[in-house]
Amino acid sequence: MGALWEVFWAASKLGLTSFGGPIAHIGYFRDEYVVRRQWLSDRAFADLVALCQFLPGPASSQLGMAIGAKRAGIIGAIAAWIGFTFPSALLMIAFAFSADTLSLAGAGWLQGLKLAAVAIVAQAVWSMARSLAPDRSRASLMFGSACMAILVPNMWGQLLPLLISAVIGITLLKPQTEKEQPAEQQDDKHPVGRISAAVMLVIFFLLLILLPIAGTWTGSPVLSMVDSIYRAGSLVFGGGHVVLPMLEVEFLGSGELKLTNDQFMAGYGAVQAVPGPLFTFAAYIGAALQTGPMRIGYALIALIAIFLPSFLLLIGTLPFWDALKRNRIAQAALKGVNAGIVGILLAALYDPIFIDTVTSSEQFVLVLILFAFSQLWKRPPWQTVLLAAIAGLLFL
């Protein structure tokens, strides 16, 4: 029990202070778990980072869950998730409630948040392209994936480019060779048995197959919401920025469980300004979809739905990772998939983010200023969002 509470409080501290997105989160995690607490070595930490980059879902949240599992088993993974996720989730639910009392139509601060989203996603595309598509082959995969995602504006426009990129990666790209290092018995222990892991993987695939069937058969709006959000959490590589186009396809429009563009982009801008994982955007969606007493319930259901596939895949993969990470075919496929991810993010930057947001030369100038503020001056996203909201309130 002592180790469990230790995991929870350490994760809560990170959940309250970790600004800057998944890459920055990994730096915070290393300082807390490797340097300060010495729960695992640098080598074991790097192995877990590689696993979380390999799996779909929010890499930093999965990394926290993996460290929690190493420390206190499956319950430790849950404690780490709660501690790291709930501060951000509660802030996003509060924002959804406060948005009811604010005038969204034509609000300058809202337009500022939307323009901040343009600049932040542009900065993410720039940074990810430099690291994940640095050569001609992978840059070609990036642009090809972007073209397909733009021309096929639905779920298949995101899935097919990733599948094609994986096949091309296996065929044409050489896996990165890593120098073998001696095993460290303390760090390589597996807190999850292979049978338990296999059960988690079976549950993951059963939910992925059965949720859309159950939603269609019952006509339940709650099941339909869970299906949409669970599928997004299951199929998204690259973190919170890439989940945007999938959630946009599912929840923008008219109907019982749909959001307006203003609601969607306001929440996406707000989630940049809070600590913790970007996937807590799902809690905002759940709260914004309802206006009655079930709002908090919807928010919590949506929050669990988007993180559940990450939890199941992580726990299901941990015991098998040592063999998989040495597989050269898997390494080559991952290089291709990562380039395709950047292309999907580039497509999302164009549609819906840019074409639905930037409507004047003045707004484009503000986007350029925000981009420079983030990329050149290396300011964290929450400062970019704050500057955008103030500029929108004063000038738009």
From TrEMBL:
Gene Ontology terms for molecular function: chromate transmembrane transporter activity
Alphabetized, the UniProt keywords read: Cell membrane, Membrane, Transmembrane, Transmembrane helix
- Keyword ATP-binding included in the entry's annotation: no
Its membrane topology: Multi-pass membrane protein
Highest taxon, organism lineage: Bacteria
Q: What's any one GO cellular component for it? A: plasma membrane
Where does the chain cross the membrane? 72-97, 109-129, 141-173, 193-217, 229-247, 267-289, 296-320, 332-350
Q: Which cell locations does it reside in?
A: Cell membrane
Signal peptide extent? none
Q: Which family does it belong to?
A: Belongs to the chromate ion transporter (CHR) (TC 2.A.51) family.
PANTHER family, per this entry? CHROMATE ION TRANSPORTER (EUROFUNG) (PTHR33567)
This chain belongs to the protein called Chromate transporter
Q: Please tell me the species this chain comes from.
A: Paenibacillus prosopidis
